[in-house]
Amino acid sequence: MELWGEIRRRVLTGEISQRAARDEYDIHWDTLQKILTYSEPPGYRLTKPRPSKLEPFLPIIHEILQSDRSVHRKQRHTGKRIFERLRDEHGYSGGITIVREAIRDWKAQSREVFLPLRHPPGEAQVDFGFADVWLDGTLTKVALFVMTLPYSDAIFIQAFPRECTEAFLEGHKRAFEFLGGVPQRISYDNSKIAVARLVGNRERKVTTEFLRLKSHFLFDDHFCLVRRPNEKGHVERLLDYARSNFLVPVPRIASLEALNQQLVQCCRNDLQRQLRGQTSPKQSLLAEEQREFLRPLPEQIFEACRLGQAHADSLSLVRFDTNSYSVPTKYAHRQITIVATIAEVRLLFEETLIARHQRDWGREQTRFNPIHYLSLLERKPGGFDHARPLEDWDLPVCLGILRRRLEAELQATGTREFIKVLRLLERHPLPTLKRAVEHALDIDATRASAIRLILEYQQESPLTLFSLEGRPHLKLVQVAQTDVSAYQSLLIGG
């Protein structure tokens, strides 16, 4: 390269002639012309392409690679396997290296290229993902609800037992509260939670629950094309970021509530991060977005719940989401309305709340409330010791003493009388009944009617004397003493 530059400099500046340069440096005339034409050696150039042994086989390679797209990735052709097939089935006599280069070139040309999208302020993206956590000592897969604001790069993430309507609605509610407002438009994929039916490329028939969510918070929706998640690539990218930064190492937590509190704090801390190309942290961008582009939260509270209908069976159980929940026996064989949230399941009959249970996220489980079956046991006291709803009922010791006394005193009707006492739990909490039973045992008043009177007495408010303290204007009032003898005049002439 040094000699090349020296020859060019001396000839082109007129220091020596081309003939002198050719003689001095002992180079061919064509070489000298090339030096004078190019500022640096141009390298070897083919005048015509070399013939390739692989070229006749390229259509076969492309056909194999194209067909592999519809096959499980673990059963696709490797470069070695394609080379073997070309050699054994098609008579290829070349090497494996150029086969691998041809495969690499085809894959590079076949990879999809995406268009960078503009993200106006006030728009959000939503997605679900999954992660593993140690929940109360058990490795459990949880669903991650994620909402992001691409303009400010803000992220909100929460963990739920699984991806379902209740988690979808509750996630939106918590996200809006965290972000301090409601985005004008939110992008989604085509999950069955929100989309009941596809209508063309962009039109969607949405679910009733999603309509209720939109009607309450007044945002517009945007659904991606089928199998085109790149239209909401921002939330896809931040979901991966949150999973690898917020949930590594795998968290060990006692409850999802504790995990969600940690995730909220992680989202707050992430707002202090400064994006590439920005001069202020994400918190400043979010504050700007809140002021000008996010709608204020509605004053009315939104209940993130799923509604359903089911019949209570002959065991007074209502099935919802593969699990069964008890209702009072008088509602057996009735149509029951189900209101399910993340935390609980409420059961209503004709708009009246008749039962409330903690939500069970297992499968084929049964949740009993023993109080629901007491009215039936009063008519069938023989099943008291064998009733499944009562087998894990942990009652205070005083109630066990009361039962033994009643059965000793009343013999055959003692169990029925004890059930009548337990039925007081339909109107009074267990701690209150416990105090009343302890008092009844002390005074030897063990019948259900006596314990009911004790309960009513204990709940009466005691009488208090009227005090003039703090009421100086009442101290000035003088009331004369009543002359009782004046009433005697009413009897005269009577």
TrEMBL record:
Q: Where is the Integrase catalytic domain?
A: 117-289
One GO biological process this protein is involved in is: DNA integration
Q: Which GO terms describe its molecular function?
A: nucleic acid binding
Checking InterPro entries in the record gives: Integrase_cat-core (IPR001584), IstA-like_C (IPR054353), RNaseH_sf (IPR036397)
Q: Where are the transmembrane segments?
A: none
What the entry lists under PROSITE patterns is as follows: INTEGRASE
Q: Which PANTHER family match?
A: INTEGRASE PROTEIN, TRANSPOSASE RV3428C-RELATED
Similarity comment: Belongs to the transposase IS21/IS408/IS1162 family.
NCBIfam families, alphabetized: transpos_IS21
Q: What is this protein called?
A: IS21 family transposase
